[in-house]
Amino acid sequence: MPTRETNTAAERVEEWKLSSAATLGSSVRTRGIFLEVRARLPSTAKKFLHVEARTLALQMPEGSEGDFRTASMIVAKALQDIEVLPVIPREIEDILAISATERHRWLNDGRLQSAGTRTVKLRGRARKITFHVFDPRHVEDVLDRDLVTLWREQDTLTAAENRRRAAGKAALTRLQKKGRKAALAIGDTDDDSRRKLQGWEDFEADGFLR
Fold this sequence. Notes:
Blueprint: E1 3-7, E2 11-17, H1 20-23, H2 27-38, E3 49-52, E4 55-61, H3 65-79, H4 89-96, H5 100-108, E5 114-121, E6 128-134, H6 136-144, H7 147-196, H8 200-205
């Protein structure tokens, strides 16, 4: 990536312009790259790295040439393969303009392809969280082919079909309940009839009908 180094009376500055292949047009992704690079710097140098638009800038006071050179080499090395840095959930949601619900649904049914998982410890907490990450080239392909629009249309059709099937199942259940109630009612009528005809055989044997 192209860099620019300048000297002023008060500081030394070096800049790195991030490519669109690295940021995928996302400010959230740009911020994520910045945090990834800054995490590799010594603690004393972290505060001197900044990000603005799509540019990382290392600004250190004059007189810190040794530290500046060390930090500059670390940043340059970190940026060598930055275009293949896995995309994390909040980044893919921003890049594709999708919701967390859509991300989970499309990941679960295989439309979004996981590139593995990553486990991080939350700051100030003992708890760790694990989440799926994504290959930036896969994300770029989804974006370029506008697959999000296609997937949303598919989801709309699927939801409509599911509602139709649910309505049909509910109607069938109601019909079955009515059928059972009717059968019970008929059964009760037969029982009443049988109770009313008790003693008929004796009545006929006595010859009252002859």
